[in-house]
């Protein structure tokens, strides 16, 4: 087997999310070489066999690999970990997933110095913070998919109300990818026009949209047991922005000094990872929600302080 290409992406965790992420990377042809890795080698092999039936649509090579292959990847995506059962919050997963993250990142040493680590497993904001610590990479190279998925869910709802394309809406869900997230309503625009001017929503309507957005994963998990396609598409978009140095502004989980944790706020994404945070001008209510979201994350992190 030849060595992985310099532009390879390693996906660690080949379950529902990891396999869907690999499928998105394959169809979008983000890099020539995608490596899938799982502790359950038989299942990983079967996922790779299944995925390889789709490679006729692209020139991407998909193969099963090891953590040693991941050491050489340009982007390492971590989807390995327990998923929510119906009724679980994302924070309920922390004990199991922190252990898995720690063991994977210690086995990945020495990690390629310019690698970007993308955390997808939940609770994503907390795992991103610990991955910054465990990986030894600069904080700017370790990010979480964060509220990009929630923002896309929000945009879908708003776009359908306005009967315009999702891409015409600029709106961010910020804070935790979880229960304490909030919508930055005051900054939302439709092609430059303030959203609330073209769609004058009442407070109750805004709350309802924010709740539907926040609860969407739970609604899906209650019926099919997991979500995968949205996060897979989001992961492919993040990888494209990194590999092609797009400098796209996306709401991603990244280290924010003023909050002392990782949470989602708009950031410029490129080949070096988080190039910079992008300013967002919130009103007082939104700022308070964001601060409360950071506080709730830090409270959980405080319970694992010995790991930091
Ligand atoms: N960030 C998001 O927006 C988002 C969206 C959906 C799901 N998720 C999260 O993604 C994670 C995975 O979800 P899923 O539905 O794919 O779960 P899954 O159970 O289908 O897959 C998880 C995989 O991780 C593997 N694994 C466990 N420990 C490992 C280790 N040490 N090394 C390698 N592989 C290991 C398991 O064998 C399993 O195949 C969960 O934490 C879930 O909450 C995140």
TrEMBL record:
Where NAD(+) binds, per the record, is at 13-18, 38, 97, 120-122
Task: Write the Enzyme Commission number(s) for this entry.
Answer: 1.1.1.27
Q: Which reaction does it catalyse?
A: (S)-lactate + NAD(+) = pyruvate + NADH + H(+)
Recorded metabolic or biological pathway in which this protein acts: Fermentation; pyruvate fermentation to lactate; (S)-lactate from pyruvate: step 1/1
Keywords carried by this UniProt record? NAD, Oxidoreductase
Question: Which species is listed as the source?
Answer: Cadophora malorum
- Transmembrane stretches, start-end: none
User: What Pfam families has UniProt attached to this entry?
Assistant: Ldh_1_C, Ldh_1_N
GO: which molecular function terms? L-lactate dehydrogenase (NAD+) activity
Catalytic residues in the record: 177 (proton acceptor)
Q: Domain of life of the organism in this record?
A: Eukaryota
Q: Which GO terms describe its biological process?
A: lactate metabolic process
Similarity field: Belongs to the LDH/MDH superfamily. LDH family.
> What PANTHER family does the record point to?
L-2-HYDROXYCARBOXYLATE DEHYDROGENASE (NAD(P)(+)), L-LACTATE DEHYDROGENASE
Give the protein's recorded name: L-lactate dehydrogenase
The entry's cellular-component GO terms read: cytoplasm
Q: Where is the Lactate/malate dehydrogenase N-terminal domain?
A: 9-144
Q: Which residues form the Lactate/malate dehydrogenase C-terminal domain?
A: 147-302
């Amino acid at each position: 087997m030849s060595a992985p290409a310099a532009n390879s992406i390693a996906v660690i965790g080949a379950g529902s999310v990891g396999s869907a992420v690999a499928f998105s990377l394959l169809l979008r042809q983000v890099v020539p070489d995608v490596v899938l890795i799982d502790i359950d080698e038989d299942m990983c092999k079967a996922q790779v066999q299944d995925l390889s039936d789709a490679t006729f649509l692209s020139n991407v090579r998909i193969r099963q690999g090891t953590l040693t292959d991941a050491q050489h990847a340009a982007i390492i995506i971590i989807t390995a970990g327990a998923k929510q059962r119906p009724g679980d919050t994302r924070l309920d997963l922390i004990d199991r997933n922190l252990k898995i993250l720690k063991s994977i990142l210690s086995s990945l040493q020495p990690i390629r110095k310019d690698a970007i680590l993308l955390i997808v497993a939940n609770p994503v904001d907390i795992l991103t913070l610990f991955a910054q610590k465990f990986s030894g990479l600069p904080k700017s190279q370790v990010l979480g998919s964060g509220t990009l998925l929630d923002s896309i869910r929000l945009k879908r709802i708003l776009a359908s109300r306005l009967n315009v394309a999702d891409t015409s809406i600029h709106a961010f869900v910020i804070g935790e990818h979880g229960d304490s997230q909030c919508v930055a309503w005051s900054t939302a625009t439709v092609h430059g026009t303030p959203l609330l001017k073209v769609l004058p929503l009442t407070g109750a309507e805004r709350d309802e949209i924010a709740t539907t957005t926040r609860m969407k994963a739970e609604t899906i998990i209650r019926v099919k047991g997991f979500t995968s396609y949205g996060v897979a598409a989001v992961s492919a978009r993040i990888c494209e922005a990194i590999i092609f140095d797009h400098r796209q502004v996306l709401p991603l989980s990244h280290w924010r000094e003023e909050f002392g944790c990782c949470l989602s706020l708009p950031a410029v994404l490129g080949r070096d990872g988080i190039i910079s945070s992008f300013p967002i001008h919130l009103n007082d209510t939104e700022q308070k929600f964001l601060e409360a979201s950071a506080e709730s994350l830090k409270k959980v992190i405080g319970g694992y302080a010995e790991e930091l």
